[in-house]
Design a protein that fits this description.
Structural class: alpha+beta
Helix content: 10-25%
Radius of gyration: 24 Å
Distance between the termini: 25 Å
Largest sheet: 5 strands, antiparallel
Number of strands: 12
């Protein structure tokens, strides 16, 4: 006969086990049955506010709350094990939307998936625990969305000097003091006589360090990135704001702008070092490639609903991996996406 929820919690607390200590599923004193696990977590987490937390902070915050609820000690840092809660064989997923994303692994039929539903008021409203075998039918296509990722090389963290030379192909086309016409839109293709050198871009953008802007991306990072994009365009002298959604962000300057409030840099489906043309035609006979693009990678911290810019690393695509470390060498990170039924979270 299963123990009462409070008995499982007491047993785990007194056992001294960490979330990484494997527990046999037949251990009736420590391995919590799925229905009891859901009851404990739902009772402990519902009505917990999640506002003013970035997605990465929400993930850690939720794991801390789960540890507290189950009687586990909170680890100094959460290891990247699969699953994170190894002993109880489950992972946690914060769901403000119904789109479930599972990174870099297949759905495990026997694993438990703790789905933490967050409502529009950014408060936890429901916790459901489901087996992988019940999620597999929701993965209608079996398609894996892939992208490259990187982070700042530890050797460069204290050395944020900027690259001052463009690629050999782009160098003849750039100047230090171009005049941007008032009617020019930053989403337009580059034009002769209007392309900043990377050295000039660094001089223009470096004063942004120490500035702040309102944080509009607590849930979706792209909203936060738009705030920085507007600030960059204004700083470079554009009178019109434009964002076509195409690569690179400030197309008129062959400039990709990235805001990092967490270490992981999403690079999309093409590496910065790629010699594949961007797809914007030619400029004086030269066709810009991804490796010719200039990358302005800003680091920021979030305080009191504002993003405070702390560092800037400016590199070409060609020199990107002299400053940043690609995850897993040539590995592409992939995610499975599936739509959860609304009824799953019904009481």
């Amino acid at each position: 006969m299963p123990l009462k929820p409070e008995e499982y919690i007491a047993n785990l607390r007194s056992s001294g086990k960490s979330i990484y200590d494997v527990i046999d599923s037949m251990d009736e004193d420590h391995y919590i049955p799925i229905d009891v696990l859901e009851k404990i977590l739902h009772s402990a987490l519902v009505n917990t506010p999640m506002s003013n937390l970035a997605p990465r902070s929400r993930s850690k915050f939720a794991k801390i709350k789960v540890c507290e609820a189950l009687g586990y000690p909170i680890p100094k840092s959460f290891k990247k094990t699969q699953p994170r809660f190894t002993g109880q064989n489950f992972d946690t997923y914060n769901q403000q939307a119904l789109n479930l994303q599972i990174w870099n692994e297949l759905i495990d039929p026997e694993r438990r998936y703790v789905l933490i539903r967050i409502n529009d008021d950014e408060v936890i409203c429901r916790v459901k625990v489901v087996l992988g075998v019940d999620l597999i039918p929701l993965d209608k296509t079996g398609k894996v969305t892939t992208k490259f990722q990187a982070n700042l090389d530890s050797r460069s963290q204290a050395n944020p000097e900027q690259v001052t030379k463009d690629t050999s192909g782009l160098s003849p086309l750039v100047i230090d003091n171009p005049i941007i016409p008032t009617e020019r839109n930053p989403s337009q293709n580059p034009m002769e006589g209007e392309l900043f050198s990377i050295k000039a871009l660094g001089e223009k953008l470096k004063p942004l360090i120490g500035q702040s802007f309102e944080d509009s991306g607590r849930v979706q990072d792209r909203n936060r990135g738009e705030g920085l994009h507007r600030l960059v365009c204004q700083t470079l002298g554009y009178h019109i704001y434009g964002d076509s959604g195409q690569f690179p962000d400030v197309r008129h300057q062959l400039l990709e702008v990235k805001l990092q409030t967490s270490p992981t840099i999403d690079l999309g489906h093409v590496l910065p070092t790629s010699k594949v043309p961007i797809g914007m035609g030619s400029l004086k006979g030269f066709t810009p490639r991804h490796c010719d693009t200039r990358y302005a990678v800003f680091y920021g911290e979030i305080h009191e609903n504002h993003v405070h810019l702390t560092d800037l690393h400016l590199v070409t695509g060609e020199t990107f991996f002299s400053r940043f470390r690609q995850f897993g060498g040539l590995k592409i990170n992939g995610k499975r996406q599936m739509l959860l039924p609304k009824s799953l979270f019904d009481e």
